[in-house]
Amino acid sequence: MLLTSVILVLREVLEAALLLSILLAMSHYLELKTRWIFMALAGGILGSMVYGAGIGTVSDTFDGMGQELLNATMQFAIYGLLLLVGILLILNRRGERRYLPLLQWSMVLAVTLATLREGSEVYVYLMAFRYQADLLQSVLLGAFIGGGIGFSIGALFYYLLVGLPRKRRLIVALTLLALVAAGLCLQATQLLEQADWLPAQSPLWDSSAVLSENSVLGQLSYALLGYEATPTRNVVAAYLCGLLLMTALLLLAWAKSRSQP
């Protein structure tokens, strides 16, 4: 159970930690105060506990597919918020302050939803062992180790980003943001397939022998690049569409910001 807990919690924590590190680096780029992060994390943690406690009721809706559909909706919502964050960040890079309130609230909502989404999975998993004293200690230790690894990697990414030259920092942060956002589209599509809202398809390939999703590198690739060892055609299409759409809109916003005096 120790290894299972490490892998499960790492998978959930790592994605939120990477997203948080990118957004914090963006705040550092704009010289913003980071008080918004405490509001976002508090809302996400409380929301994850409420969601986790009511997961049974949610799951019973939509013919037993309520959880998958709600999670997919949250993933698409986070994608939209990250797209807005990227555009507003570009428009603010020349020192304009009029977009800052909207930018900060977009980051708050994105982190809140990401924490709620990932935290609820951890909450449900841990609560399943609360009456199994013989396994609880191992599960909690594994969760602690997995969470520690996830947040450590997130902290490493943050310091790598803020250590870059200012001109490169924005480009790298936007690139990482686009990759994370595309991964959210991939995950949402997988959930829609599980809910039978999209047709079931055979995997296009199986790369698990090359890079296992259960390894630390596989978990990092999943959180940062949306890595999937056995993707279907729908999943690949969703990832590419999400990545191309965000890239195109960010480039348009960049061109607009450069054309302004």
Automatic annotation (TrEMBL):
Family, per entry: Belongs to the oxidase-dependent Fe transporter (OFeT) (TC 9.A.10.1) family.
Transmembrane region(s): 6-24, 36-56, 76-92, 99-116, 136-161, 170-189, 236-255
Record's bilayer topology term: Multi-pass membrane protein
Protein name (Swiss-Prot/TrEMBL): Iron permease
Presence of keyword Transmembrane helix: yes
Location of the protein in the cell: Membrane
A Pfam entry, by short name: FTR1
Entry keywords, A to Z: Membrane, Transmembrane, Transmembrane helix
